[in-house]
Structure formats: C-alpha cells, structure tokens
Amino acid sequence: MFAALAALVSMFVLPSSGQAAPAGSTYVALGDSFSSGEANAPYLPGTDTSRDQCHRSTSAYPQLLARQGLFYAQPLTDTTAFVACSGADTGSLRNGRYGEPSQLGALGPATTTVTISLGGNDLGFSDLVEACLHVGWNGNPNCKAQKVTSPADGAKITRAQRETWLTDHLDLHSLYQEIHARAPQARIYALLYPHLIAMRGRACHTGPGSYSARNILWFHDMVDYLDQHIADEAAIARGTKADIRVVDPRPAFDQGHTLCGTDSWIHGIEFIQDECKRTEGSTSCLKGSLHPTRAGQQALADAIQQASGASPTLTLASAGRAISPSPPA
Known about the structure:
Strand order of the largest sheet: 2-1-3-6-9
Radius of gyration: 19 Å
Strand content: 5-15%
Helix content: 25-40%
Oligomer: single chain
Order of helices and strands: HEHHEHEHEEHHEEEHEHHH
Largest sheet: 5 strands, parallel
Number of strands: 9
C-alpha cells in the first residue's frame, strides 16, 4: 500500500506546505476542492495536516489524467504540478492558502496544459450546504428566501439574490487571461460544476438531515447559472487569444449519478465533529460533503478527455467501464 502511494506521489511535484511548485511545469492542475479530490482519502503528504487542508487526493482527476498520460505520449513525470487546494477561491488561488504560495506560481512558458475548477467558494457553496439542510444548524425548507446581508451595500436581501449578485460579479476572465499570460502556450480546460442532487420532485434524505425538493431545484438552477457564467467568462478570455476549452460534466452526472440518484457519484452529507474543532481555515462540520466520489472524479477526467478530443480514457474498475490506456496520438 505504501509503495503504491509512493508511486502515485512521484507522478507530481508535490509542494509541501509553504513551498512553491517549480515554475513552468508542463501540466498544471489548478483549482478548488473539485480538482483537489476532497473527500477521497488518502491525501498526498503534507496536504492533510492541522495547518494544510488542501486535501490533494490520490484519486483526484489530475492523478487519473497523469496515470493515463492523456496529454502526452507517456505518463507524466516530475515536471507536473498538482497544486489545486480545497477551499480555494479566486483570491486564495492567486495569493495562496494554508501557508502554500499562489497556485499561479506553478505556471510558466513550458506549460502546455492547465486544468482548473473555480467559482463555487466565491459564492459560498459550502455555507449553503449547511444552511439549506433541514435538520440542525440553520436548516430551512426554503432557504433561498432566507434574509442575508448584501455584499454590495449591507442591506438585507434573500439568499437567492445574494448568490445571483455574487455570480454576476465573479471575475474569472481576468484570471484566465493571467493564466494565459504566464503560460502562453497552454491550453486551459475550465471545468464546470456538475449538478449535485437528483431532481425527483421530492426531498433527498442524507446523513443528519435532508434537502427539500424546493431547495434541490434552486441548487440545480444555481449550478446552471454559475456554469453559464464560467462559460461566458471563458469566452471573454478566448477573445483575447487564450486557448481555453469549457468542460461540462453535467450530462454524465445527470444520468442517475447525483446524490439520491440510482448510482450516486456525489458524497452524501456526513457530520464530522472533529472538523468543527479545527482552528485554522474552514470550520465546516460537513467538510467533504457534496463532493464527487472516486467514480465522480473519474467522470471529471472523462469529461476533460472528451473535450481534448483524445482517445477513450482510462477508467476505474469500480466504475464498471472499459479500460483503454492508450495515449492520444
């Protein structure tokens, strides 16, 4: 087991807390928890400590792409930088998180491929996971109508209005342009977010509570609104010569693989007491909930493969699909 883990670790330049990855890595995996592989332990050394909770999983889609050698004629080597970090938003991606430096420092003229998921934490999705749960904390069967403080002027507005405002003011195109400026030869794969909970016209019961049908519909619409915004921001960056492709995993997840679906690729809600006691970073008691499982991470890798136009992707045996390790031509 330890030997296998060591082999996986060797595929990436793994910056320990506070250390930068080598600039100019050929493949750079940027982003938040959907790219780091949150909720799918074991995590890479130095990313699951009391100070560093970046939680880079050995099962995250960047690891799967590296094992497969998708963008190259052979498996990726130690020129790869896997710097995605759980909880990252546009600010901490630029400035660093948990004592780690800016993720952008891994980019350089030699970079040819970048993957990134970002935006959910800027909108406070992790807070909504708790606020909209029926039981405990601030659960509310119709949480989108709950009054919160406006980020614009401090007035009281609804959660739905707040999320719409935050999405409309989320500047991703300048980030994509900065990635292009640092890595002008790179193709950027901007990953959209999958729908998280099945729309069945009834509540989804999970862990310590449930989500109402009304809240599930709002979550669904909110993900679509954010994903459209990400696509629009990518189009702006593309207009300034950035080579950027939008990767949409929703069609795959919508085939019964959302939470409360027939075969979920989304982790359910789990109350973790130890997470409530942490003194640094996120203090969510539900850390890891509503994130892709290992099969979900494979689906993200598959979506990137499809967007790249490469040959069929290497798949997890647990996903029950064919395995084709052949790299692209």
